[in-house]
Design a protein that fits this description.
Helices cover 31% and strands 30% of the residues. The chain has 7 helices and 12 strands.
Length: 230
């Protein structure tokens, strides 16, 4: 009988140094399939650095240790390679283009092509289907600058789902949301979990972490202090 944990992500013995400072010191961090894992720690603890290693912002060669995705060692040279492996990060500062439509933003860098040109009909159809998954009822042609920040975050999640993401990293996702928008986000997070999407949830709001996360990992001064069920 195989008792090996079903990890979708394993970060093994990750060490990352900047001039004069060791940002990550031999960190090992695992995420199970369909798990919502909280990553917490003070500012400067190493949370963002760890996620930047995972998402390819810091490419292979700028750190030591191994990244394992679905049992395979990965050597990401770029964010695009990390996304191709199914890892998507949604930063606190959303990476959307205000003047473009919701549909255009969802497929930035991933255009729906036909005969060498963008297929706008398929773009709108696929965007509408992804918007339905995240609970957005706006017209896909609506410019991003005409919807609020809560809806913009849902567009970011739809964009991640368009790339078949299996691990979604949410960095302080409720910082700019109203109570109603936060409740909708939590419903969506639980829905994604039921579909097998794993999530890494970075937040300073402990009440939220205890409400929606399965496990919690605490980072301090570039090292993991503990990992426990919430």
């Amino acid at each position: 009988m195989d008792n090996t944990p079903n990890y979708v992500i394993e970060m093994l013995h990750i060490t990352k140094e900047f001039p004069g400072v060791k940002a990550l010191d031999n960190v090992s961090f695992q995420v199970r399939r369909g798990e919502i894992k909280a990553l917490v720690g003070e500012n400067g603890a190493g949370k963002s650095t760890l996620m930047n290693v995972l998402s390819g912002v810091y490419p292979e060669g700028t750190y030591t240790g191994d990244l394992v995705v679905d049992g395979e060692i990965c050597r990401f040279k770029s964010i695009q390679q990390s996304e191709h492996a199914g890892i998507a990060i949604i930063h606190q500062e959303l990476a959307l283009i205000p003047m473009l439509s919701i549909a255009e933003n969802i497929f930035i860098g991933n255009p729906q092509m036909k005969h060498g040109a963008i297929d706008w009909i398929q773009t709108r159809i696929k965007a509408a289907a992804l918007m339905e998954r995240v609970g957005l009822t706006d017209d896909p042609d609506t410019p991003i600058n005409q919807i609020g920040v809560g809806k913009q975050q849902l567009v970011e999640i739809a964009k991640a789902l368009s790339k078949n993401c299996k691990v979604l990293i949410l960095d302080e996702p409720t910082a700019s949301l109203s109570e109603k928008e936060t409740a909708h986000l939590f419903t969506l997070i639980n829905s994604l979990k039921q579909r097998g999407v794993s999530m890494i949830y970075i937040s300073h709001r402990m009440a939220e972490i205890f409400k929606i996360c399965d496990t919690i990992t605490v980072l301090r001064n570039g090292s993991i202090v503990t990992t426990k069920p919430t």
